[in-house]
């Protein structure tokens, strides 16, 4: 369990502080008594061996169940830095982020123009 916690925190760290687009991580299966795992699990999600699914909470991440565990990759870009206090960061449907006005999320933070695309919250 401790190893899984370290892997999850490492993935979160990479997601937040990475300056490259995307990241991948492996959540290892815990085999009991030498049995070969035929499923992988995330909270409320079951994967059969060889199955690939897009994550429900993040459409920019895909996971594949392999014998050694659940291998996941995200194509979401790095978080914007130095966001003004009157603005906030929201995920964009193109797997990037929008910086929008806090009081009017339909407007771009820097230009004040209406955003062309809709976005969704996690």
Automatic annotation (TrEMBL):
Protein name per Swiss-Prot or TrEMBL: Beta-microseminoprotein-like
Gene transcribed to yield this protein: LOC106164182
Keyword Disulfide bond: yes
Domain of life, source organism: Eukaryota
Gene3D superfamilies (alphabetical): Beta-microseminoprotein (PSP94) domain
Main location: secreted
Protein's cellular compartments: Secreted
Signal peptide bounds: 1-22
GO cellular component, one term: extracellular region
Keyword terms of this UniProt record: Disulfide bond, Secreted, Signal
């Amino acid at each position: 369990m401790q190893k899984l916690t370290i892997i999850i925190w490492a993935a979160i760290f990479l997601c937040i502080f990475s300056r490259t687009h995307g990241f991948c991580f492996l959540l290892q299966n815990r085999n009991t008594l030498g049995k070969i795992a035929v499923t992988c699990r995330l909270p409320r999600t079951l994967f059969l061996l060889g199955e690939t699914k897009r994550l429900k909470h993040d459409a920019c991440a895909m996971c594949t169940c392999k014998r050694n565990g659940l291998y996941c990759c995200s194509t979401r870009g790095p978080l914007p830095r130095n966001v003004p206090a009157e603005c906030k960061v929201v995920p964009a449907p193109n797997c990037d982020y929008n910086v929008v006005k806090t009081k009017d999320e339909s407007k771009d933070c820097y230009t004040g123009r209406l955003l062309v695309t809709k976005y969704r919250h996690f």
